[in-house]
Design brief:
4 domains, four-stranded antiparallel sheet, five-stranded parallel sheet, single chain, 539 residues, alpha/beta, 16 strands, Rossmann fold
């Protein structure tokens, strides 16, 4: 099936028409209808968790309308269910005439295209084990032969999850898509639903719109050729890493804070890619895009409490990692920083200047080094000191009532004689850096010009790549028939942030260019001062 853009759009609208028809007359079930159709078109299974009377079986019955001449099977499991009731009764004539134990599968699950199994966890082990082979391999072992099962989609439902320790893990893992089905929440929708008298079991989808079995089988092969870009694979790796980090954090928690960890098998990841490819195909695209990835949370959770966690995890992964991985922004940023450091080093030199100053305490006291308890003197008294005068010494700058006095005289800068013994005053040593410019050599300027030109070309290429991405890829985002358009805001916002970041890189390049082209020789550009307290030993 070769597709061009015109046929792609026509195909997508056909799929959209099918979905709208399946959803007609239902309320607040659009997403569940879409997921059911997507799982059937992928040849996978879906599990619906919800109370009785929320249209789970109705959705399964209406799903059959999407396919021309499709057969269906529906069964409510209970603890006394037998394989005969699900897979068909034993053929008495085959047993009698040919001595073969075979089932008559027509009108039972092995002969159906769409199957609905309610209260799935109440089935006995013999039924569950047979279901494993049917779901995963699309094979039913009937007597001595393996019968291919033409099952498009299996919908299972229950108002509970499988019990732990009952050997149901393998069957639970086979249900790739999982979704909650709750009662109608909106008041207006509820009122419309209870007064609606239309026949919801009537099939009014035109045959020319329905999907034939030939088309269905042909599309499976085409679906498998859908491109999965490296961007999507990188995003999958990122989500896996986030899950591992989450699980590790749960291991380190104790008590009530601890939550159940996630387990996503390799088989499940492979099938997740299959769902993403199917979504892309049914949307008339030849590649998976970021919008398809909003489907991933439906295939990760094991318990309802985990739904919000996986939604946030996937959304944030798309938000932070989607498309960014295709751009070499880190490379550009590092190159600009490296060039900036080189320009600064080659166009400036530092002159150091050191000087000392007495350290003041509360702008009122100096401190005498190594004198003892009473070691603070008032600045005013020290400045007025000429010959031997009596000066008061304080033991703290917070209390002038604790003091002693000595006869003192000055002894040069930073020093004082106390009772004829020389002491130094505590001082601060300042180091002043004066930075001056130096004009770079012409060859160096040419070299920098080339680097700036190379960086600006790289920036231009990234902007063109984003523009192409927006024109070719992003135009599909709001048209995804399985995902609400509003979710595309996450991707558009990220792209706009990337554009802003790239334009800032361009401005930085211009700043560096202007910087080294306008430098004058021996011009002071900045002064930086550093200081440290210096204590001298007793003189």
């Amino acid at each position: 099936m070769e597709m061009n853009s015109e046929l792609d759009e026509k195909f997508r609208k056909r799929m959209q028409t099918i979905l709208e028809n399946l959803d007609k007359g239902l309320y607040e079930r659009t997403n569940i209808v879409n997921l059911s159709f997507l799982s059937a078109m992928s040849g996978e299974s879906i599990f619906m968790l919800g109370p009785p009377g929320v249209a789970k079986s109705l959705i399964a019955r209406r799903l059959k309308f999407a396919f021309k001449d499709a057969t269906s099977f529906e069964y409510l499991m209970h603890r006394f269910s037998t394989p005969d009731e699900v897979f068909g009764p034993i053929s008495i004539s085959k047993l009698k005439n040919d001595d073969k134990l075979e089932r008559m599968v027509d009108n039972y699950l092995p002969g159906a295209n769409i199957a609905f199994l309610d209260e799935i966890w109440k089935a006995g082990p013999s039924i569950q084990n047979t279901l494993l082979t049917i779901i995963n391999e699309k094979i039913f072992r009937n007597g001595g032969q393996e019968l291919p099962v033409d099952l498009f989609g299996l919908i299972a439902a229950s108002n509970e999850l499988p019990e732990q320790g009952q050997g149901l893990d393998a069957l639970w893992d086979r249900f790739l898509i999982r979704t909650l089905v709750m009662n109608i929440g909106d008041r207006k929708n509820f009122e419309e639903m209870i007064v609606n008298t239309s026949n919801l079991y009537a099939d009014d989808l035109l045959d020319k719109i329905k999907i034939t079995k030939e088309e269905y089988n042909q599309w499976q092969d085409i679906r498998d050729q859908i491109l999965v870009p490296q961007e999507i694979l990188d995003l999958i790796h990122h989500i896996r890493a986030k899950i591992e980090n989450y699980n590790q954090n749960q291991l380190e928690k104790e008590g009530s804070e601890k939550e159940k960890s996630f387990y996503v098998s390799d088989r499940r990841w492979k099938k997740i890619i299959k769902i993403l490819r199917t979504s892309a195909f049914l949307n008339g695209r030849k590649f998976v895009d970021l919008m398809d990835c909003f489907l991933i949370p439906y295939m990760l959770w094991d318990e309802p409490d985990q739904i919000q966690i996986v939604n946030t995890l996937v959304k944030e992964s798309i938000r932070h990692k989607g498309y960014t991985l295709l751009l070499n922004l880190d490379t550009i940023n590092k190159e600009i920083e490296k060039l900036s450091e080189e320009i600064t080093t080659e166009t400036s030199f530092v002159k150091l200047k050191k000087f000392k100053k007495l350290k003041e305490y509360k702008s009122k006291y100096y401190k005498v080094e190594n004198f003892g308890r009473y070691d603070f003197i008032k600045i005013e008294e020290y400045n007025n000191l000429k010959k031997n005068n009596r000066i008061y010494f304080y033991d703290t700058i917070n209390n002038d009532n604790s003091y002693d006095y000595y006869y003192c005289r000055k002894s040069g800068s930073f020093k004082i004689f106390i009772e004829d013994i020389e002491y130094e005053l505590e001082r601060i040593e300042f180091e002043e850096q004066e930075i001056f410019t130096k004009k770079p050599h012409e060859l160096l300027i040419k070299s920098w010009d080339k680097k700036i030109e190379s960086l600006k070309n790289l920036i231009k290429n990234n902007l063109e790549e984003i523009a192409h991405y927006k024109e070719v890829d992003l135009k599909f985002l709001k048209q995804n028939i399985f995902i609400e358009p509003k979710k595309s805001d996450v991707i558009f916002q990220r792209i706009e942030e990337l554009e802003t970041q790239i334009y800032q890189f361009d401005l930085k390049c211009n700043e560096q260019y202007d910087k080294y082209h306008s430098i004058k020789e021996n011009e002071k550009v900045v002064v930086q001062s550093k200081s440290k307290t210096r204590r001298s030993k007793r003189g």
